[in-house]
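note to self: dont lose this again. the chain is below, predicted strucutre after it. 145 aa total, dont forget to put it in the shared folder this time
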Amino acid sequence: MPMDWSDMPPIPPGFADEQLLDRMGIEILSTGLDRVVGRMPVAGNRQMYGLLHGGASAVLAETLGSILAVMHARPERFPVGLELACTHHRGATAGWVTGTARPVHVGRSTSTVEIVMTDDEGRRTATGRLTCLHRAEQPGAVPPG
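---
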């Protein structure tokens, strides 16, 4: 079931059709304060040897971790990524990789999330750890145009 994006901050005009999760094929399956689950296809996100690209795993990790951070910090604070680390355990060559983000620490000024990614057989493919800074002001960028 896709996420109800009505609880998320609005995407500024000019950026709506530039969302990386759409380009990567990421689907958000469930959300809650205790976890966010999403998946991404291996097809279209491979490196030259046919394995899931490590950067694609990082995109999945940061996407899920950021959504969880937003759910904890908004509407008073605006989380932005501060540090992302990924360890790649095994390659994925087909199907989907599913990520589950769980909070490790949630504070007023920072949050840290662990993201476990598994293949269709439930084998761990990667582990990510995302720390976000919770800003008082909404970060802004000028839309392209």
